[in-house]
Each structure stands twice: as C-alpha cells, then as structure tokens.
Write a structure and sequence with these properties.
8 helices, Rossmann fold, 265 residues, 37% helix, alpha/beta, 6-stranded mixed sheet, 3-stranded antiparallel sheet
Length: 265
Amino acid sequence: MKSKSYEEFVEKFKPKKTTDDCYTPPEIYNVIRDWACREYDILPEKIVRPFCPGGDYEHYDYPEGCVVLDNPPFSIISKICDFYLERAIPFFLFCPSLTAFSSNNTVMRACHIICDANIIYDNGANVKTSFVTNLEGDIVTRTGCELTKEINRMSKKLKEGKVKQLPKYDYPDHVITAAMLQKYTHYGVDFKVHRKECYHIRILDSQKEAGKQIYGGGLLLSKAKAAEKAAAEKAAAEKAAAEKAGKKIWELSDREIAIVESLKN
C-alpha cells in the first residue's frame, strides 16, 4: 500500500483545475455537437477542438473547412471570438449566459444563442451556459429552446446516475431514525428521547430475511415515547402540507399550551 506522504507527493505534480478549466463532460459535449451539426449542416469530421488542456488556439493548425466547436476559457472569450472573426474561421463556442453581451468588441459581430441550461463541468463549476457563433449571418442573438431542452435532459440523466438513490421504507412508531429527527427539526417540531426510553438498533428482525437494514441505525422507542413520536410525525406532516400550500401556520403560545395540558382527556 502506498503511504500517505507518497500520495501527497504525487498530488503536487498533478495539473490543478482552475475556474477557467471547465472541462465539458463528454455526454454534454456530444449533445451540443449533434445539435450544432444538425442546425448548421456541419460534418462531424470537420470539427476541431483547440482548447484541450495545454492547447494553444492561436498556433493551432486549422484545416481547410474546419469548424471550431469547443469550450474555451471564459475569462478570454472576447479575445478568442475576435481571433476567429478576424480570420473568418467558423466557430461555435460555449460562453457564460449572464455575460454573453459583455464584449464591446465582438457583441455586434457574432450571434449569441441564449440557453437556460446549467452545466456541471468536470471541475465542479455549475455554470449557466449559452453559446456564441459566427454561423448565424447577421443575427446578433436568438433563443436556444431546443438546445436547452437537450442539454438539461442529459444533465438530469447524468445527475441521476451519480446520485445514489436510497431505498425508502416505512417504519412503525416504535422506531426513530436521524432522518426522521432531521425532518422534525426542519419543521420546528421539538422531540427528545432519554436513555431509559430507547434501545439502539441497526436492523429489525423483519428486515433480516430480506437482507435490509435501517440506514444509519435507529432507536427502538418505549410505548409512551412511540406515541409522542406519532404526534411529532403528524405535526411535521401538517406543517409540510401547509408549507407546500403556502399557508401561514399559527402557533400556540406557552399560555395556550398550558391551558391545553390542563384539559382533561
């Protein structure tokens, strides 16, 4: 096994990704490439990507008839667009949506396809992304409705693939978990359990045959505490429903709670 110090030594020599190193997930790039190829009749084999890590777009060998379709460093997007516009090199480039019109030098010389698409790049940056191109003639800007749908569809698919979906179970009132307490806390429902009122468990006997268990463990509650938990569950559910409906929840004061407690069952 390699020592921690060795791993730290090796880590120092790995290239660090900055906020400009927005490496595009291949699945997202493919969706955008395929859309652009359909929209502008681009042959996929004519596409070039000069913005690979360590690449130099200014000294790149651009073949005759090529189209640049890539994700450039956003901090110099204006300079890059100017470079391609001056040389009449066809391009379709990623750009940050909110600053798409920020360049005085190129804004009127290119088309800005504005999308409502969030892309999570390989450096972890979550950027609302649009596109800038010189393939639209004299159009300065347009909406990218279909492209947005395709990007968001793929982004959702990638996100679902990365997030582990935990199984959801219903438990009897005598069982409480941290997730349940987290919900009570979210909705402002006070609940506490003393040592004498609970027993630590990781699995119910009924789960053993199915090979299941309580995620994160739980507590087995006394009969009285289970009744309190049922009341807490009901209160949290009512607040959740009211919150969803946008209703204001009026709380009882300490004085009113004292009156309630003094009432006979």
